[in-house]
Write a structure and sequence with these properties.
The protein has four helices and five strands; from the N terminus they run αβαβαββαβ. It is α/β, with parallel strands linked by helices and about 120 residues long. It has a three-stranded parallel beta sheet, with helices on both faces. A two-stranded antiparallel ribbon has the order 3-4. Helix 1 crosses helix 2. The protein starts with a helix and ends with a strand.
């Protein structure tokens, strides 16, 4: 099941990438999807398809916040409502982290960025 879901997920990322390319051609403007992985505590969260699509080049930009070692504050119980939701303080910290990663992305002129 996990292999099938990963393959399906990568195919979905390929489809999204294809749709973006079509829109770029139609509008003659550069478009790029930016994907992110939220800081979930749920054990059944599987982001292997996103990582595989990123590593295969279907996704250029991936902001991953699912590493408890890199984003310790977001996983502390006093920053959460439950395993899937941050409380107000956690949401503020997450918003600042997301903005920081986006700023880093803009400053690096669109180079591939993934933080794990």
């Amino acid at each position: 099941f996990k292999k099938t879901s990963t393959i399906y997920g990568v195919k979905m990322m390929e489809n999204i990438s294809s749709q973006i390319e079509k829109q770029q051609q139609i509008n003659n403007k550069k478009l790029e999807a930016i994907f992110f992985i939220p800081p979930l505590l749920e054990a059944d969260s599987n982001y292997s398809a996103l990582y595989k699509a990123y590593n295969s080049g279907y996704i250029d930009t991936l902001f991953a916040f699912n590493n408890v070692n890199n984003f310790t504050n977001l996983y502390e119980l006093n920053r959460r409502i439950d395993s899937a939701h941050l409380n107000h303080q956690g949401a503020q910290e997450f918003t600042l982290l997301l903005a920081s990663r986006f700023t880093e992305y803009l400053n690096n002129s669109g180079q591939k960025i993934a933080n794990r």
